[in-house]
Design a protein that fits this description.
seven-stranded parallel beta sheet; globular; 348 residues; alpha/beta; 7 strands
C-alpha cells in the first residue's frame, strides 16, 4: 500500500498493511532540533525523511494584519494580530455588544483579497506522489467567536444574548466557507483531506455542555464538513481535550476522523473509544504529548505505538496527541514513533 491507499482504508476501517502515521505540525521552535536530528533543511525535507504518510499544507493567507488564516480577524482593532501568542480570553471588540446594531462597526475581511490562488497550487504541488495531501483549513469559528467577545463574555452571550453571539459566529463561518472554497477550487483534484476544528474540551470534560455544543458549534461544523465532502475530501475534525460526549454529534455531522486521541484526557482512553465507536468513525492521535513524548524513552514510545496498533488494527492514524509538536519533545521519540508505526503487520 502507498500512503494514500493506507489512508482511505483507515478512514473506512478496512485492513491495512500497517497504520498510517502523521507527524503533525511541529512548532516553529521545535523545528531546528528536528532538522538537525534528521539532517534536513526545511519542513518539506523533514516530512520526507520522517516517512510521513501525510503532506500538510497551510492556506496561504496574507493581509495587512495577519499572515495565517487562523489569525485573520483583528478582534482588538489595533492592527496587530499575533498568530503565535494570541489569546481567547482577552476582551475582544464585541465585548459590550448588546444588539445586532452594535456589531456594525467591524470591517469583516474578504478572504478573496488575501489568499494567493497560485500559491495554493504551488504548495499542494510540492507533495510527493502517493502521499495524503492534507489542507490545514482550521476554520475555528467557535474559537474566533470567543476571541471576538472575550471567552467569558462569549459563553455568557450563548445563554443571555444568543442572537448577538450567533450573528458573529455566522459571519465567521461565512468567512471560512468562502476562504475554503477558494482553496478547494484552486487545488481541485489534488487535495485528499482537510483538517478543521474547534478546541472545546478541557482535560476533564467539555468547556461547555453537550447541549450548547450541539446548538452553537455543530451547525457550523456540519456546513464545513458538507462543503469539504462536496469536493470529495475527507474531514479530520480537531478538538483538544475530553470530547467523548459529543463524538456522536461529530459523527452525525459527517466527520470522517476525530483528532486527536488525547489519551490523558478524561474518557479519551483509546480502548474506551474503540469500544464505544468501533465501526462508526476513525481516529488520529494517541501517542501522548503531555508526558510520554516529553519524558519517556524511545522504548516506551515504541511500546505505546504497539499498544495502539493492537487496539486499532485499522481505523487509527498513529500520531502525537497534539498536532503541534513542541520543543520539549526529543526528536529521538518522534523517530521511535514512526519506526514502530511503519512496521508492516506480520513482519514485526
Amino acid at each position: 500500500m502507498n500512503s494514500l491507499e493506507r489512508f482511505y482504508a483507515t478512514v473506512d476501517r478496512k485492513p491495512v498493511d500497517r497504520p498510517a502515521a502523521w507527524l503533525g505540525m511541529p512548532d516553529i521552535f521545535a523545528q531546528p532540533a528536528l532538522f538537525d536530528y534528521y539532517g534536513v533543511k526545511n519542513m518539506h525535507e523533514l516530512k520526507l525523511a520522517v516517512g510521513d504518510d501525510f503532506y500538510a499544507v497551510e492556506v496561504p493567507y496574507q493581509s495587512p494584519t495577519a499572515n495565517a488564516i487562523y489569525a485573520a480577524f483583528d478582534w482588538y482593532m489595533d492592527g496587530n494580530v499575533d498568530a503565535e501568542d494570541r489569546t481567547l480570553t482577552a476582551d475582544g471588540c464585541f465585548k459590550d455588544a448588546e444588539d445586532l446594531e452594535d456589531l456594525d462597526f467591524f470591517a469583516w475581511p474578504d478572504p478573496a483579497k488575501y489568499i494567493d490562488v497560485e500559491e495554493c497550487r504551488r504548495r499542494v504541488e510540492l507533495a510527493p506522489e502517493g502521499k495524503v495531501v492534507l489542507g490545514m483549513m482550521w476554520s475555528a469559528h467557535f474559537q474566533d467567536a470567543c476571541a471576538s467577545f472575550g471567552m467569558e463574555t462569549a459563553l455568557m452571550n450563548m445563554i443571555a444574548n444568543p442572537q448577538v453571539y450567533e450573528a458573529v459566529n455566522d459571519k465567521i463561518v461565512e468567512f471560512y466557507l468562502k476562504a475554503n472554497e477558494i482553496f478547494y477550487e484552486a487545488t481541485k483534484g489534488k487535495l485528499n483531506a482537510v483538517l478543521i476544528g474547534n478546541d472545546m474540551g478541557s482535560q476533564r470534560g467539555l468547556m461547555l455542555s453537550p447541549a450548547m455544543v450541539r446548538a452553537f458549534i455543530i451547525p457550523g461544523c456540519r456546513k464545513l464538513v458538507e462543503q469539504a465532502h462536496s469536493y470529495g475530501l475527507k474531514v479530520i475534525y480537531h478538538s483538544c481535550g475530553s470530547i467523548a460526549d459529543v463524538i456522536p454529534d461529530l459523527i452525525e455531522a459527517g466527520v470522517d476522523i476525530v483528532h486527536p486521541i488525547q489519551a490523558l484526557a478524561s474518557g479519551m482512553q483509546p480502548e474506551l473509544l474503540k469500544e464505544k465507536f468501533d465501526g462508526k468513525v476513525s481516529f488520529c492521535g494517541g501517542v501522548d504529548t503531555q508526558d510520554l513524548l516529553v519524558n519517556g524513552t524511545p522504548e516506551e514510545v515504541c511500546g505505546k505505538v504497539r499498544e495502539l496498533r493492537t487496539i486499532f488494527p485499522t481505523g487509527l492514524i498513529i500520531s502525537p496527541s497534539h498536532e503541534a509538536i513542541m520543543p520539549d519533545v526529543p526528536p529521538a521519540n518522534i523517530k521511535a514513533l514512526f519506526d514502530e508505526a511503519q512496521k508492516v503487520y506480520g513482519e514485526e
